[in-house]
Design brief:
CATH class of one domain: Mainly Alpha
CATH architecture of one domain: Orthogonal Bundle
Strand content: 5-15%
Helix content: 40-55%
CATH superfamily of one domain: Winged helix-like DNA-binding domain superfamily/Winged helix DNA-binding domain
Structural class: mainly alpha
Distance between the termini: 24 Å
CATH topology of one domain: Arc Repressor Mutant, subunit A
Number of strands: 6
Largest sheet: 3 strands, antiparallel
Length: 270
Amino acid sequence: MTAPQETDESTPPQWSAMEAIDRRVLGVLVEKAKTTPSSYPLTLNAIKSGANQKSNRYPQMQLDDDQLEESLDRLRECKAVSFVQGDGRVQKYRHLAYDWLGVSKVELAVMAELLLRGAQTVGELRGRANRMEPIPGMSQLGPLVDGLLAKSLLIYLTPPGRGASVTHHLYLPRELEKVQRDFGGTATPSPAPPFSALPPAPASLPAEAPVASVIDRPSATSPAATEDLAPLRREMADLRASLAEFRSEAESSIESLRAEVADLNRQLGN
């Protein structure tokens, strides 16, 4: 099987907003192409299994054959998916997402995770996408986030920063409005400060911090209190992002192990 090629930047991308089922199906095809290439392209049954699986999916879905066939027809019509004739004349499907989205291999891994799970922090996104394409650290994720922002494929849901939440820009308008409300703000694809230019998270909390007495401590509503709390809030956001990244790395390792075991079982005929 010929390895998928990255997009030709001279070819304009063709992506557009799509239904939730279509996003799930496209995400599954990309994910399985990267994690279990020996089983790719996928049959309808394999797509259904991947779309309805419990792990690494949000929201949970229970799609039937008719729903999936209708989705695949829509994806073929917009040139995001094509079908091939498999062994025994079983029809199989493959994605055309590199050209359809206009992305590179690693950018597609990031997009696949967003299509499969929706909004998440950048730390979670790095850990989860790392199971499909190597993203050693947050410094490597920065240029990917910047590139997807520039292509309007990724949007911020919370203010840019190490603990920011992001999502894809393939929601239908009614869905995007709900996501915006859930995060208490307005998601926009407008230019944001480059993620790769943000200051790195601190390695640890300061060794010592002076504690003000009750008499000297400013009131919670005073300008001085706001200034004193700002660094602490930033540190807390960085610590949450680091914890999310650690948790995501553990999840991605488990997912990769499961995929390897499943692939081995198929090869053994189990």
